[in-house]
Amino acid sequence: MYIVIVNSHSGKRRYNFILKQLSTFLHKPFLTYIASEYQEETMWIEIDNKLLDLKGQVKGFIIIGGDGTLHYTVQKLYHHNLPFGVIPSGSGNDFGRALKIPKNTKKAILRINQQNINKYDLLEINGKKVLSIIGIGVDAETAIHCQTSRIKRLLNMAFLGRLTYLAVFLKTVFRYRSKDITINNEEGCSFRFKRVWLMALGNTSYYGGGIPICPSANPQDGKIHVVIVHNLNIAQLLLALPTVFFKKHLSLPYVKTLEGRSFTISTENIPIQGDGEELGVAPATINILHKAIEFY
């Protein structure tokens, strides 16, 4: 048996279609929880109680949604130590993209049926688990603004939701002021970068709807892959932007990379996002949790 969590913001017609596909193709029975039918924490409390009642009958969780739904579900259900499956249904599916989970609903279900469970790394920051990338600077402000942006709603209506991040980034970047940032690794080495526009700490390669900002990141290698864009003006930043989509940006003189198991950002009052969700401001410490979560 599975417990299925549905992001109702993906649209009633869409998630009803997926639920019908699950009923047809999934090899095990499932219980469905639709987020919009509950208030605040009541859904998670009910799921916890159901797991106690079923006493080991639940074999995993299936999330119908995008990165935001997956991020929030992991915070609430990670402690049950059960594997997660994903049926992509959101404007951002960057973790699913990294794991090569099919966008096609039937193929995603068949992947779960295969019961091929693998362990993956997680990032941890201030007690929060992050699956894909932690962003600091202008990309964090962009991700935060995406949550309430009218642009996101309009692009989703036009089935162009994956362009939301880029559109909001181009709007945000002209208001953002680059900052000097100090970062320390687990060995005590300190690195100071001037005029930092963004810093991405990756467990996987993608964020923002398919932007490969950390192209060498591997969610099973036990490492945080850090990309810092610094010491350039806004014109240079905008000219460099297209190189990211072709994974050519790491060779640019104003892009620096680091690798490690733990990093501390000591500079204060810089916004932080993880999986597209707001995570507060620096200072903060980011750790890698090696092979800490299971996915079908």
From TrEMBL:
<protein>
    <submittedName>
        <fullName>Diacylglycerol kinase catalytic region</fullName>
    </submittedName>
</protein>
<keyword id="KW-0479">Metal-binding</keyword>
<dbReference type="InterPro" id="IPR050187">
    <property type="entry name" value="Lipid_Phosphate_FormReg"/>
</dbReference>
<dbReference type="GO" id="GO:0005886">
    <property type="term" value="C:plasma membrane"/>
</dbReference>
<keyword id="KW-0418">Kinase</keyword>
<keyword id="KW-0444">Lipid biosynthesis</keyword>
<keyword id="KW-0594">Phospholipid biosynthesis</keyword>
<keyword id="KW-0460">Magnesium</keyword>
<dbReference type="InterPro" id="IPR016064">
    <property type="entry name" value="NAD/diacylglycerol_kinase_sf"/>
</dbReference>
<dbReference type="InterPro" id="IPR005218">
    <property type="entry name" value="Diacylglycerol/lipid_kinase"/>
</dbReference>
<dbReference type="Pfam" id="PF00781">
    <property type="entry name" value="DAGK_cat"/>
</dbReference>
<keyword id="KW-1208">Phospholipid metabolism</keyword>
<keyword id="KW-0808">Transferase</keyword>
<dbReference type="Pfam" id="PF19279">
    <property type="entry name" value="YegS_C"/>
</dbReference>
<comment type="similarity">
    <text>Belongs to the diacylglycerol/lipid kinase family.</text>
</comment>
<dbReference type="InterPro" id="IPR045540">
    <property type="entry name" value="YegS/DAGK_C"/>
</dbReference>
<keyword id="KW-0067">ATP-binding</keyword>
<dbReference type="GO" id="GO:0046872">
    <property type="term" value="F:metal ion binding"/>
</dbReference>
<dbReference type="InterPro" id="IPR017438">
    <property type="entry name" value="ATP-NAD_kinase_N"/>
</dbReference>
<dbReference type="GO" id="GO:0016301">
    <property type="term" value="F:kinase activity"/>
</dbReference>
<dbReference type="GO" id="GO:0005524">
    <property type="term" value="F:ATP binding"/>
</dbReference>
<keyword id="KW-0547">Nucleotide-binding</keyword>
<dbReference type="GO" id="GO:0008654">
    <property type="term" value="P:phospholipid biosynthetic process"/>
</dbReference>
<keyword id="KW-0443">Lipid metabolism</keyword>
<feature type="domain" description="DAGKc">
    <location>
        <begin position="1"/>
        <end position="129"/>
    </location>
</feature>
<dbReference type="InterPro" id="IPR001206">
    <property type="entry name" value="Diacylglycerol_kinase_cat_dom"/>
</dbReference>
